[in-house]
Each structure stands twice: as C-alpha cells, then as structure tokens.
Amino acid sequence: MAKMAASMVDSGEDAFRKIFKFYRRRNPPPDLTGVTDFSGGEPGDRVSGNDVEASRVGLKPVREWRAFGLQGYPGFIFISNPFLRGCQAFWVRQCLKTYPQKPNICNLDMHMNPSETQDIWGQSAPTLRSRKPKTLLEKLRWVTLGYHYNWDSKTYSSSSHTPFPSDLHSLSSRVSAACGFPGFQSEAAILNFYRPDSCLGIHVDESELDHTRPLLSFSFGQSAIFLLGGRRRQDPPTAMYMHSGDVMVMSGQSRLLYHAVPCILPAAAGRSALEAEGPVPDPDPDPDRDLRDGALPEPVSQEDWTVCRRYIQTSRVNVTVRQVLEPGQSLPETRACSPQGTAAAAAADRRSEKRKRSSGSTDSVHTSHT
Ligand SMILES: O=C(O)CCC(=O)C(=O)O
Ligand SMILES: [Fe+2]
C-alpha cells in the first residue's frame, strides 16, 4: 500500500484520488491485502472509564475494549466493536426507525413533501419484510440531528436546530470520556446510509467551530474501506476496514485529516457479525424503562429486527457525532428556516441534488463536505 502510494506521488498524480479510485474499482476487484484490519490486532492501553455507565448504552466494560492507535496519526483512536453482544441492534433500529423521523432532516426532504417523509419506517417496513425492492429506507442517504448541517453553505446555524437525541449523546459522551475527552457535548450528527454501490468522497470535517473536541464515528451493518489521509487533500491515505460496531475517534492532530469511504464491501466478503448476532432476547420486558434507569438499551422486537436485518444485509449505516461549539460560544443565525419548514432550503437543495446526480453515475451518500 505504502509502495503504491509512493509510486503515485512520484508520477506527480494526486495520491489520495488514485487510491480512492483503486478501492472504488469493481472490475477487476481491488487487492485488499494492504488494508489494515484492527479486528485481529493487539490493542494498546488507550481507554479507561466507568464500566456501569458503558453498559447503559450497550457497551462492554471499558477495560475490555480493544482500542488502537495508528502510527503517524496522533489523536486517532480505533475501537474494534466495543458493543455488548446483541446491543448493536438497538442502535441500528434507532438509525433506521427513530432518527429519520421529524423534526430531524434527511435527503428525502429535499424532493418530497414533509407528509410523505413523515413515516419512512412505516412506509418501508412491510415492503422490506416481504423482500420487495426500493422502499424509502433504501432511498435514504443521510439524516442530520441537532444542528443540521447545511450541505450548500457547509455551515451550521442557530436557526436550523432540533433537540439532539439523548440516547446518542449518552453513547457519545461515554466513548469520548473513555478516550480522554470528558464533557463532550453532542451537538450535531450526520447519519450516512450506504447502499452497496455508495461511497463518500474525500473531505475534511471542519465546519464545527471547536476543533479541540473529537469527532466520533460509529459504523453498523456491512463493512467498508476507510481511507485516512493527511492535512493536505492530496496526501496519500492509509486504508483500513471498518466493520459493524467499530468506533473511530478523530481527535487532536487527527481531527482535521482528510478522509473518505471509497467502497462498501460485498456481502460475501463482509458478512457482518451483527447479522449473525441479532438482538438478545429481553431479560426484563418492562416497557417503561429507559436508558436513564441504568438498564441496557431497550431491546429490539423481532418484528423490527426483521426489517433492520434485511436492510443491513446489503447496507451500512455510519453515524458521526460532533461538538460544534466551544463552551459558551453561540452560532450566527445564517438563514431563517425552521426544521419543519425547510421548503425554501429544499428548493435550493433540489437544484444541488440535480447537479450531483448529473455529475456522475457513482452513488455518493452526499456531496463531500469540502
Ligand atoms: O462513513 C464513514 O465512515 C465516514 C463518514 C464521514 O466521514 C462523515 O460523515 O463525515
Ligand atoms: Fe467525515
């Protein structure tokens, strides 16, 4: 891999783009022998934290987490699936059923009426259960939470904000505290929904105002190749697998590195442990409990799991959680648009979606951030 990157630099070409294209190629499929796989490696001593609090969000005791650094990338931490057996199912169900609901914003809002996107799960579940193609869920590409990222202006604004889900904040604050960042405020999230042919272009996440706080990434479903580059767009990246349940923390000097997802691995090669795992049966079927009670995340019904399993058999969901502001800081109000009334924004975004569609045949989950 390093050799390949070096030869590309020698030839004067943009190493990151070349390597992105290398992994994106279908025919012949790329040689994956140079891809770092943390799932088999020896972890370092990088995390510490409260085991009881971790279990409340479905995570193993922190001392059992397999956390890795990467040489040459200070501040980058890779945690190989720290979820308790059966607990990823809860987060997948939240990503597919709960977080796409209003008032959160998703790509479908850009070209559909709010009434049509009110119940993406309800409209999609019967069809997904019966194995017929193309539901709204399968057309979902992104959802934004908290401060809703504006894809056109590449900014956040105080006028486009809805409450951040408390369960996802609990998960994020446990992980960031374990990695040495107590007091993390989950203020924005982007959920990316990858179909088998999706990718995410080369970008850096710099729209947040506080870069001293880490960027957290949670992956579920099919595996993917993740490319982690340097401070310059053309710097050659390191390729690594991201499997279901893996968590990545980009902090310190790694917070503003270029990165990309060139491909989702075909199901045969990337059969997710999650699919085999399924949800754990509920030992305590009390419908009134929630995460605050100190219980494990609420179990997923077999009915819901059938839909989630069908979806993740071919798809990947990634959630990045960001702290946008320094404590005490506030955002400018750049554009008046209420979360439900995004019609004005939608018209502009419809134009940019059209541009995106006509710009190539690859299925990018969204336009790159930069
Ligand atoms: O899907 C991934 O692993 C990366 C997502 C990402 O980089 C982003 O949303 O900014
Ligand atoms: Fe990113």
Characterize this entry briefly.
The protein is an alpha+beta fold. Helices cover 26% and strands 17% of the residues. Helix 1 crosses helix 2.
List keywords for this structure.
370 residues; alpha+beta; Jelly Rolls; eight-stranded antiparallel sheet; 10 helices; 13 strands; binds 2-oxoglutaric acid; binds fe (ii) ion; EC 1.14.11.33
Describe the structure.
The chain has helices at residues 2-10, 15-24, 51-56, 88-98, 120-129, 136-139, 166-178, 273-277, 302-312, 343-358; strands at 66-68, 76-80, 105-106, 142-146, 188-194, 198-203, 215-221, 224-228, 238-242, 247-250, 259-264, 316-322, 363-364. It is α+β, with helices and mostly antiparallel strands and 370 residues long. It has a single domain, classed as Jelly Rolls (Sandwich), CATH 2.60.120. It has an 8-stranded antiparallel β-sheet with strand order 1-2-10-7-12-5-4-3. A hairpin with a 7-residue loop joins β1 (66-68) and β2. The longest helix is centred in the C-terminal third of the chain and has 16 residues, at 343-358. The protein is globular, with a radius of gyration of 20 Å. Residues 286-295 have a biased composition (Basic and acidic residues). Keywords: Dioxygenase, DNA damage, DNA repair, Iron, Lyase, Metal-binding, Multifunctional enzyme, Nucleus, Oxidoreductase, RNA repair, Transcription, Transcription regulation, Translation regulation. Its cofactor is Fe(2+).
